[in-house]
Write a structure and sequence with these properties.
The protein is built from one helix and eleven strands. It has a domain of 121 residues: Sandwich (Immunoglobulin-like). With 226 residues, the protein is mostly beta strands. The strands form two sheets. Strands 1, 3, 5, 6, 9, 10 and 11 form a seven-stranded mixed β-sheet that branches. Strands 2-4-8-7 form a four-stranded antiparallel β-sheet, with no helix packed on it. β9 and β10 form a beta hairpin. 13% of the residues are buried. Helices cover 9% and strands 27% of the residues.
């Protein structure tokens, strides 16, 4: 009996050894491997504008009127001639001692019953100190020739504040009988009480014209027959 038990123990020991040789060997754990993962770059997302739609209502039954083409008319404009005053084409006149010299008209008729036959000449002094007289010198000058009349001297009337005037007619001037249509040239001089000159203008030329007076006969009750 003991031999059997011993035999069983030997068998068990041999089995345990053989089983120990058959046990799985220890497996080594592999070292962790570093994995590089590419990070995607940020991409710019375009911002698209918000589309706004406006709905145009359609009117049912409404008809759009079709414009009717009118006949084209051609107009021809006739240019109107522009007449500039004579004064604008003339050089300025030197006026020593005076602010201004003006005339109320640029044309008068010879003093024989035609109108207007009188022109007012106005002179403005720049200073009234020592001025006692303001004299107007006037003469006729032919329109086409260098023929001139004698100078006529006329004292101008004071209005105050250095202003002097005179109403001039052709009948007041020397040699009136020898001129029918002509220029009237004029010049202004200021002087002291004793006659000493204070100021003088140059001669105003081609600014005032005298026209020939040709009276027209108007019918009267005496010469009108029924």
């Amino acid at each position: 009996m003991k031999k059997n038990i011993s035999f069983l123990l030997l068998v068990l020991l041999s089995l345990s050894c053989s089983l120990g040789s058959l046990a799985p060997a220890a497996t080594s754990t592999p070292a962790p491997t570093q994995t590089d993962t590419a990070t995607p770059l940020p991409t710019s997302t375009p911002v698209l504008p918000t589309l706004t739609f406006t709905l145009t209502p359609t009117l049912i039954g409404y008809k759009t009127s079709t414009p009717t083409q009118l006949p084209t008319e051609t107009f021809t404009l006739t240019p109107i001639p522009v007449v500039l005053p004579t004064n604008t084409l003339l050089p300025p006149v030197k006026m020593e001692g005076f602010v201004s010299v003006v005339t109320s008209l640029t044309e008068i008729y010879k003093d024989k019953g035609c109108f207007p036959a009188v022109v007012r000449v106005t002179a403005q002094l720049n200073s009234t100190v020592n001025v006692a007289h303001v004299l107007l010198f006037a003469r006729f000058k032919s329109l086409k020739a260098e023929r001139t009349a004698k100078w006529t001297t006329i004292e101008m009337q004071p209005l105050g504040a250095g202003t002097f005037i005179h109403d001039l007619a052709s009948s007041q001037m020397l040699d009136d009988a020898y001129f029918e249509t002509s220029w009237i040239e004029y010049q202004i001089v200021s002087a002291t009480k004793s006659g000493a000159e204070v100021g003088r203008t140059d001669i105003f030329k081609e600014r005032l014209k005298m026209l020939e007076c040709v009276p027209t006969h108007s019918p009267t009750s005496a010469n009108v027959k029924p």
